[in-house]
Amino acid sequence: LGLIAFASLFLGILAFTRPATRIVPDDISYQHFGFFNYSARAPAGIYDSDTVSSGEPIFPNLTCNLSVHFNYTLVADEVQDIAGTHQLTAILADPQSGWKRSIPLQSETVFNGNTFDSSAPVNLCQIVTLIESVEKETEYYPNAYTLSINPFVSMGGSISGREFQGAFQPNLTFRYDRVHFYVLKEDQEQNPLKPTEIGVAQDEIRTANVLPFFGFEPEIPFLRFLSISGLSLSLAGIVMLALQLQRVSQQDQAAFVRMKYDPLVVEVEGEQLY
């Protein structure tokens, strides 16, 4: 009983000197999926067909009108009440000097749900004309330019019962070397036509604290209960034992002495001495 009381007291010191609860992250992840597609009419005999397909270069001398399509999908568990806005913008830039010019391709559009489609025309001949005009005014003639198609997607809603706000800003970048536009692949591990991004809806919850012990992680509230219970039962047992000894000492003194000094008592046989 004394050992149980000591162990319970030691366990109580460990449990009551630590907070009963702790705050832990309770994040929910979701994923943005984008898909770019573009096409343009082309003269017969230049490409395999009379249409320029996604991934193929575009020559402004052959065709001016490029049609750009973007599809967006939000993937998450228990998606509800998703709504937001999106807008396609073209950004013409010179990577060397840092000059850029933003060209809105469409007005900001509202969408509902976790997916939408967006399309806009891009006149490549007008882009080339703009480049020539800027070069004439600045007398600056870089070797190449970039043309980025940037969808800006902003949305909000509920994921697994939790409110969230998110944004997705991928880009499809073409390089223009004064002859043709071709897709620039900045990340060798990702398809530029299929951008993806993982988002996190951050939150925190309060949960029971734990005490690591040889690979186990018992909760602090349970350890507190265990220590109080063990200490209470052991002390109650000690009190009951003391009361029992007191009762025996009052009723049978010889039995009490034997119980108390039993390890020291030696049985003796022989004549009785006076």
Please outline the helices and strands.
Blueprint lengths: L1 H15 L4 E5 L2 E14 L9 E2 L12 E11 L3 E15 L6 E5 L4 E4 L2 E9 H15 L6 E15 L2 E7 L3 E5 L4 E3 L12 E6 L2 E5 L11 H32 L1 H9 L13
Antiparallel strand pairs: 1-14, 2-3, 2-4, 2-13, 4-8, 5-6, 5-7, 5-9, 9-10, 9-11, 11-12
Helix pairs in contact: 1-3, 3-4
How would you portray this structure in words?
By secondary structure, this protein is α+β, with helices and mostly antiparallel strands. 26% of the residues lie in helices and 39% in strands. It contains 4 helices and 14 strands. The strands form 3 sheets. Strands 5, 6, 7, 9, 10, 11 and 12 form a 7-stranded antiparallel beta sheet that branches. The model has no long low-confidence stretch (mean pLDDT 87).
On the 0-100 scale, what is the average pLDDT? 87
Give the helix proportion (percent range).
Answer: 25-40%
Cα end-to-end separation = 43 Å
Structural class: alpha+beta
Question: Element order, helices and strands?
Answer: HEEEEEEEEHEEEEEEHH
Number of helices: 4
List keywords for this structure.
single chain, 274 residues, alpha+beta, 7-stranded antiparallel sheet, 5-stranded antiparallel sheet, 4 helices, rod-shaped
Task: Give a brief outline of the structure.
Helices cover 26% and strands 39% of the residues. It has 274 residues and is an alpha+beta fold. β5 and β6 (100-104) form a beta hairpin.
